[in-house]
Amino acid sequence: MKRTPNVIVIEDNDDDFEALKFAFEEDGAPGLDIERCTTGPEAEHALDRLRDRTEISREDRVLIILDLRLPGLSGFDLLKTMRHDSRLRRIPVVILSSSSNQSDLIESYTAGANAYIRKPRNFDEYVDMVGSFRTFWTGCAELPVLGQLGLGDPPRTVNGTDLDGLDDAAFRREARDADVFARTSPEHKLRLVEALQADGSIIAM
Hints:
Layout: E1 7-10, H1 14-27, E2 34-37, H2 40-52, E3 63-66, H3 75-83, E4 93-97, H4 102-111, E5 115-118, H5 123-140, E6 157-159, H6 160-163, H7 168-177, E7 180-182, H8 186-198
Parallel strand pairs: 1-2, 1-3, 3-4, 4-5, 6-7
């Protein structure tokens, strides 16, 4: 069984990622597994693996470090996607951004970020930041066990109004993630069947 990384870093800037990775190594974090995603689509693929749980030990825990500016998808959109997904919403997400704009900070917390950290200016500051970061997030804080996330959640219901105006990609995500579809039109039902079949589901009618 493939082990889930303890930390998923969603960061497109090579220099920032290397500084962060070397800082973790300098800090001497034993056994810490770090996976990097550089684009929105790569991040969505990583989230799909977390949703499916097929390659994940029930004892694995994960923390996501997320940049706000990504090719193909904004960090805000990715965060909102996670917080609206019953299988992902409890995974801790820390924003690591160069932005000092108060509107970015406020929007991050509004969208459900667990913390907002300004990117350090040099490697020494990265080492200091990672030391404090790891002490709290992998030392003091208790991270949820992935195999138990989502157990006992109420069913996620989507109605026809929610589906109106969605593009094909967003519609497929709703078809995959929702548990109950209510007050849908015949057109919605046809699109749902097509989306679920495209995702490999077997549909009985």
